[in-house]
């Protein structure tokens, strides 16, 4: 098609798509396995921090100050967030059912 339409320069077809990234694809697969309905905000949150699963709960840990800020801004009302004040600690978000046992 590039010859047909006389296009000399074009971006790499496989570059830039997050679905080709193993870690992102794994996070997305996990999200679909644990949620019946997924929204754009939840997919965008997959780009932030490190994601862990503990039973039915999801734990997201910020990797730097910028991610810590983004996690606080994008957290849901039902999420818990943890941080150690005045210590430069990572922000941690806990999503899912909360019980006294956890």
Describe the protein in words:
It contains three helices and four strands, in the order H-H-E-E-H-E-E. The protein is an alpha+beta fold and 102 residues long. The chain has one domain. Strands 1-2-4-3 form a four-stranded antiparallel beta sheet, covered by helices on one side. It is elongated. The N and C termini lie far apart (57 Å). The relative contact order is 0.13.
Sequence-ordered SSE layout with sheet pairings:
Elements: H1 22-34, H2 40-45, E1 50-54, E2 57-61, H3 65-74, E3 80-82, E4 92-95
Antiparallel strand pairs: 1-2, 2-4, 3-4
Summarize the structure.
The protein is of the alpha+beta class.
Described by strand count, sense and barrel closure, the largest sheet is: 4 strands, antiparallel
What is the distance, rounded to the nearest whole angstrom, between the alpha carbons of the first and last residues? 57 Å
Radius of gyration: 18 Å
Shape label: elongated
Number of domains: 1
Q: Report the β-strand fraction as a percent range.
A: 15-25%
Structural class: alpha+beta
* Helicity level: 25-40%
Arithmetic mean pLDDT: 87
- Number of E-state strands: 4
Unreliable sequence segments = none
Q: How many alpha or pi helices?
A: 3
Instruction: Describe the strand arrangement of the main beta sheet, using strand numbers.
Output: 1-2-4-3
List SSEs in N-to-C order. Answer: HHEEHEE
